[in-house]
């Protein structure tokens, strides 16, 4: 079962998500993390820090876990 990440806005960016999900400790680490790790959003690889994530999007980071955005 994927871990649920709750948002109270229309969307968050992939960079914001990484911090919210405790995958990284600071927002400044997002660029480095995305250059070093594969991130899959709804089954497609995407390394864009500004990628918008909305409710029901599924994020899979091999070695870190699976997540789903909820409101």
Task: Supply database-style keywords.
71 residues; 20% helix; single chain; globular; five-stranded mixed beta sheet; alpha+beta; two-stranded antiparallel sheet; Structural Genomics Hypothetical 15.5 Kd Protein In mrcA-pckA Intergenic Region, Chain A
How is the secondary structure organized here?
Elements (H helix, E strand, L loop, with lengths): L2 E4 L5 E2 H7 L9 H7 L3 E2 L2 E2 L6 E2 L4 E4 L3 E6 L1
Parallel strand pairs: 1-7
Antiparallel strand pairs: 2-5, 3-4, 3-6, 6-7
Explained architecture:
This protein is an alpha+beta fold and 71 residues long. The protein has helices at 14-20, 30-36; strands at residues 3-6, 12-13, 40-41, 44-45, 52-53, 58-61, 65-70. The chain has one domain: Structural Genomics Hypothetical 15.5 Kd Protein In mrcA-pckA Intergenic Region, Chain A (Roll), CATH 3.10.290. The chain is globular. 18% of the residues are buried.
